[in-house]
Specification:
This protein is α/β, with parallel strands linked by helices. α1 packs across α6 and α3 crosses α4. This is KANL3/Tex30 alpha/beta hydrolase-like domain-containing protein. It comes from Actinophytocola algeriensis. InterPro entries: AB_hydrolase_fold, KANL3/Tex30_Abhydrolase, NSL3/Tex30. Pfam families: Abhydrolase_11 (PF20408).
Length: about 200
């Protein structure tokens, strides 16, 4: 494992790199609003991705690196994320297809930046469809705006809602809630199978 500090317009971000032998793609994963890159579902997804021959970068946003728990505004998150993408694609994932992903808030960032960052696919863990108890505050437009293959892994009792399938979008429902802690093996297996399938035409 290698840890990098990466300058962004909003301060340094951090990337924890987990490399697969003969990597066929790079997967960048962002954390949730109040959590870090050690979340159980991110760890499980990393395990599944490396098993599929995909390098993984767990990306810590500048506000977390600076020790703050309250997330930065969406525009700052997206700008910092794209700065990390640019550095990693140039120095570590050169000429490899990139998959964007993350859990909760990190999944939203991945969706919003997928087109500008030229991602070939998006992995969403616990996508927060709406704030708990506020279905009228839907964020589905962020998910619906993704035009590349998308996998959403969602807890069956997630209070942040359940997205529906759509064009290019698969939904896998897991036992548990927004934390996605109950079936790490299932998450690893699901991510490994999905990455293997969607990357096969690009090999």
């Amino acid at each position: 494992m290698t840890t990098l500090s990466i300058d962004t317009p909003h301060g340094p971000a951090r990337a924890e790199l987990h490399c697969a032998p003969e990597g066929r793609a790079g997967l960048l994963l962002g954390h949730g609003a109040g959590g870090g890159v050690g979340a159980p579902d991110l760890v499980a997804a990393t395990r599944g991705a490396t098993a599929a021959g995909v390098h993984v970068a767990l990306v810590e946003q500048p506000y977390r690196v600076a020790g703050r728990r309250a997330p930065a505004p969406a525009g700052q998150l997206d700008t910092a994320w794209l700065a990390v993408v640019e550095r990693l694609s140039r120095e570590w994932f050169h000429e490899l297809p990139l998959v964007f992903g993350g859990r909760s808030s990190g999944a939203r960032v991945a969706c919003r930046t997928s087109e500008e960052g030229q991602a070939v696919a998006v992995l969403c863990l616990a996508f927060p469809v709406h704030p708990p108890g506020r279905p009228e505050k839907s964020r589905m437009s962020e998910l619906a705006g993704v035009t590349v293959p998308t996998l959403v892994v969602q807890g069956e009792s997630d209070p942040f809602g359940m997205p529906g399938p759509g064009h290019h979008r698969e939904i896998v429902v897991m036992p548990g809630d927004h934390s996605l802690k109950r079936d790490a093996t299932g998450i690893s297996r699901t991510v490994e199978e999905w990455l293997g399938r969607i990357l096969r035409p690009l090999d």
